[in-house]
Amino acid sequence: MQQPPGIREVGLFGQESFAAGADLIHVETIAASARVHDWSISAHRHPTLVQLALVTDGGAAIDTGGDLRRPPLPALVVTPCDCPHAFEFDPGTGGWVLSISVELLDDPRLGAVDRDYLRGGARASVATLAGAPERAALIDGLFRHIAARELHSQVPVNAATCASVALILALGVEMVQRPESSSPPLESDRRELFRRFMTLVGKRHRESWTIPEYADALGCSQATLTRVCREFGRRSPAQIVIARRLIEARRLLTFTDASVARIADALGYRDPAYFARNFASGVGISPAAYRKRHMRRVA
Predict the structure, then answer these.
(1) Which of 88, 98, 77 shows the shortest CA–CA distance to 182?
(2) 80, 98, 77: which is closest to 88 by C-alpha?
(3) Could you report the per-residue pLDDT of 259-289, keeping only the tens digit for each?
(4) Using CA of residue 204, residue 206, residue 212, residue 213, what is the dihedral sign?
(5) Residue 78: strand pairing partners
(6) What domains can be seen in the chain, in order of their start residue?
(7) pLDDT of residue 150
(8) pLDDT tens profile 100-148
(9) 179, 171, 184: which is closest to 65 by C-alpha?
(10) Fewest CB within a 10 Å sphere: which of 68, 84, 139, 178?
(11) Rg (alpha carbons) of the chain, rounded to whole number
């Protein structure tokens, strides 16, 4: 299950449509998701979605961006927005897949989850629950609670659903970030450099930094930064910065009434038309069309 140089970008249900929507919470069984792909889901990433998969029984080889693992089950896979991942499931494998739109991370009802991590500041990670049956049962029950509301459809974001999602996110992030987690540690200097770059992009993407400025701040050459980004992110540094800006652009278009020109300026674009072209190229529709479809109006 070796990942090709170009990782395909997909939305929900494998569609090449990235405008997920501010209120999207979707849950389905692993069987429903994997059976149509003959149980093998090739390397891909979701520019607008955060995903958590709970593999309860059967078997799965999980690629989290270059590290192929077959963890003891049950296991939880936490995939931040835009992180490459792939699965090779044994036929009949059981479990759940939860997808939420990256915009929903701004909902205060999700509490104190690590939003920077989930927005794409790290790679996908795996934590086994084989030695924690009570926690496995709790997480499985939370997935079932969400699924019971409306399986195979978008779930209305009410307080009970948000509470279940918040607890799954909090437990998942806590587990994969523990030192004793079974997720592969970021041991190499190159992987650590990539992690630092992603964190810096999360903090500085609004400031019009050039790639040489990022490299200087990280204490490396531009060539080294480009190599580690292509190795672990499958994209150039510039493509990663643009992707992070687009996440912020979607958030601003959804939750504020700022003009497109003002949003472009806030994100470091001197030319609003260039921003609009970047947005349409990355998201599939213009900023104005995205806002018309997704903007939340506060009474």
Answers:
(1) 77
(2) 77
(3) 999 999 989 888 999 999 989 988 889 999 9
(4) negative
(5) 52, 125
(6) 8-177 (2.60.120.10), 189-294 (1.10.10.60)
(7) 60
(8) 988 888 888 888 888 878 887 567 888 888 878 888 999 999 999 888 8
(9) 184
(10) 178
(11) 19
